[in-house]
Write a structure and sequence with these properties.
It is built from three helices and 39 strands. The chain has about 625 residues and is mainly β. The strands form ten sheets. The chain has a five-stranded antiparallel sheet with strand order 1-19-18-17-16, with no helix packed on it. It has a five-stranded mixed sheet with strand order 2-32-33-34-35, with no helix packed on it. Strands 36-37-38-3-39 form a five-stranded antiparallel sheet, with no helix packed on it. A hairpin with a 2-residue loop joins strand 4 (about 120-125) and strand 5.
């Protein structure tokens, strides 16, 4: 069976030598064929040898790969998605003095019940860019907090295929454009200086279940984005577009079609469910990472469809619930590692992948890691996809009705949440298999840990390269798994719900978990349990700090060595978005979007806050006690 696989990595290394940073080949519309690879090889060779190439812009691959200082130019801070700031002006000794500089209000955009504020602010050349759950984009002056321009998406309010609340997790940035993926599946490029629409590409039809919720990634003339919608019977995909005009460059399907590599892990021709791959899921919920030297783009995928009914999709169901690497210029497959075979538990790999170099067994290795809903961190060689720290295939309980996989991968080291239930909650059936991970179920229901809303979901992790520590924002939440029977084996209409069961919650225990994981050994350094959910993500800094948010509106700074709370500040709404750090006019700043969240059940708002050690603004009142304000506030 194809548990992990990589394809001719020597070509990747050769490509990196030929292209170097910032020297890309030309491209057209390709699906990663051998012909496209050969063409791009020779075009890249010509680009590398040419002395007449136009000068690169400021946001070159070199700059985007570096740790951010005077801005925050990508969703993950750099191309490696590390969410780490090397700035030290704000540190353990003085963070208690941090105050607000200004509070910009976003005109009430995205404050309704159906919206969530999950976007990480982008900062470049003295301007902050933020997108709300309504896909409205705001450019805010770092100096004054005033709105420089606004883009209104004017989304069709009849859109009814959104899985998890109306949200956007951020925008993409190039030298001259801002890129926003919308819930109506439009990918829009805005003039960075004016907010005017430069181009608008209809990537898919929202009526067919597709939406764009992750922040697009700009890289070397390309805009790369994944697609959400697995609960609506989509066939997952990642696409790259030409940043100049929005034309399609390449497409990679996360569920392979007949005859393609990986298709043997789905029902074959002649099987009554042979067309299930067309609805097979594999959403991509987060912004990819890129290694410019290897020329690879990395991401992870969601669960197969239908979520809770495995009987229609015999096999491991590649490339769902997997980590993947593609050639960034052509979209050609390089390798994959599947975290959960034939997933029937909705264990999406929804957390952003993180790239880093680390010493293991005395040797510096190029790693990619992802914290998963399963409660484990999967640490792989980012050249080949092979595990850097052992991952063992172990037998698991079976249910022939679901066609369950006989084994599942168990990473060596520690899990960051519990993966069993000690005592069943009142009103639920007796425990089966002690409610352990990978316990199968049927329509009568089984309680198990983690549930679909447990483990590490979309809130991003942060990596400290000085200590080799990954900081994971997760939740310890059991699920009541029920499913396996469907009235229709395949969706009747595009965009129909395609779940095959029920999302069932167990009222307790339900806790947030913040965990520090040593990537040298994949073991816990420290871990703490929160009374509330951890639903904001983490920023790590060289000042020995972690910044993270609470649903009650508090933005907190923690000591990264042990998780001790050093500072907190009431922002006035659910602090459910990751924060960014940057230096402006010689002073370090923290910027945070406070807007609340549907799934977390937290108070809504429309505030973008800027903080520094010279700030003078006090905390906001708790949500519900303030009058609406539409202008920036200063002191």
């Amino acid at each position: 069976m194809l548990r992990y696989h990589y394809a001719d990595m020597d070509r990747n290394l050769e490509r990196a030598v030929l292209y170097g940073f910032g020297k890309r080949p030309s491209w057209g519309n390709t699906t990663g064929t051998a012909a496209a690879l050969l063409a791009s090889f020779f075009l890249g060779l010509g680009a590398a040898c040419s002395q007449d190439s136009p000068p690169a812009g400021d946001l070159t691959p070199e700059r985007l790969a570096a740790l951010p200082t005077d801005g925050w130019p990508t969703n993950g801070g750099n191309l490696f998605n590390q969410r780490y700031s090397p700035l030290t002006q704000i540190n353990r000794d003085n963070v208690a003095e941090l105050r607000g500089v200004w509070r910009a209000r976003l005109g009430g955009s995205g404050v309704g019940q159906k919206y969530s504020g999950e976007a990480q602010p982008i900062v470049y050349e003295g301007v902050a860019y933020i997108v709300t759950g309504a896909d409205d984009v705001f450019a805010i002056s770092v100096e004054t907090g005033e709105t420089l321009w606004t883009y209104e998406a004017n989304l069709n309010q009849s859109i009814d295929v959104i899985c998890c609340g109306w949200t956007s997790r951020g925008v993409g940035l190039s030298d001259d454009k801002i890129f926003v993926g919308q819930l109506d599946a439009h990918l829009v490029a805005l003039d960075r200086m004016t907010g005017e629409v430069v181009w608008d590409t209809q990537t898919e039809n929202w009526e067919d279940g597709y939406s764009l919720t992750s922040a697009p990634l700009y890289y070397d003339g390309l805009v790369i984005t994944g697609f959400a919608g697995a609960e609506r019977g989509i066939r997952g995909r990642v696409k790259a577009y030409n940043a100049d005009d929005g034309s399609l460059a390449w497409t990679f399907y996360t569920v392979p079609g007949p005859g393609e590599f990986g298709s043997e892990t789905w029902p074959q021709p002649g099987d009554p469910y042979s067309d299930v791959y067309l609805y097979g899921g594999g959403s991509v919920w987060q912004t990819p990472a890129v290694d410019p030297e290897l020329g690879l783009v990395y991401f992870s995928t969601g669960n197969p469809g239908p979520d809770f009914a495995g009987y229609v999709r015999a096999g491991d169901n590649l490339f769902t619930t997997s980590m993947l690497a593609l050639d960034v210029y052509t979209g050609e497959y390089r390798w994959h590692f599947q975290q959960v075979h034939h997933d029937i538990w909705d264990y999406d790999a929804a957390n952003p992948v993180v790239l880093f170099d680390i010493e293991i067994d005395g040797e510096t290795r190029q790693a990619v890691a992802e914290a998963s809903k399963t409660g484990w961190v999967y640490i792989l060689d980012r050249v080949t996809g092979e595990p850097l720290i052992g991952i063992e295939e172990r037998p698991v309980p079976q249910d022939e009705r679901h066609l369950t996989s006989p084994t599942q991968p168990y990473p060596a080291g520690d899990s960051f949440i519990h993966q069993f239930v000690d005592i069943v909650a009142q009103g639920f059936p007796p425990l089966v298999n002690q409610g352990r991970i990978f316990t199968p179920f049927w329509m009568e229901g089984v309680v198990a840990m983690p549930g679909p809303f447990g483990g590490a979901n979309w809130p991003p992790s942060a990596y400290d390269p000085t200590s080799g520590t990954l900081f994971v924002c997760a939740n310890e939440r059991p699920g009541f798994f029920r499913g396996g029977e469907m009235e229709n084996d395949l969706p009747e209409m595009p965009g129909d719900s395609y779940i095959g069961g029920f999302f069932g919650n167990v009222p307790f225990p339900n806790h947030g978990i913040l965990a520090a994981m040593d990537m040298h050994t994949n073991t816990l350094v420290w871990r703490q349990r929160w009374q509330e959910f951890c639903y904001s993500g983490v920023l790590a800094t060289a000042g020995g700090l972690l910044f993270t948010g609470q649903g009650d509106g508090r933005l907190m700074a923690l000591d990264s060595s042990d998780g001790s709370v050093l500072w907190e500040f009431q922002t006035g709404a659910g602090m459910n978005a990751p924060v960014s750090a940057f230096e402006h006019n010689g002073e370090q700043h923290i910027i945070a979007y406070s807007a609340g969240n549907l799934f977390a059940g937290t108070p809504r708002g429309d505030s973008l806050w800027l903080f520094s050690l010279s700030g003078t603004m006090d905390e906001a009142r708790p949500a519900g006690s303030e009058l609406p304000v539409t202008e920036a506030e200063h002191e």
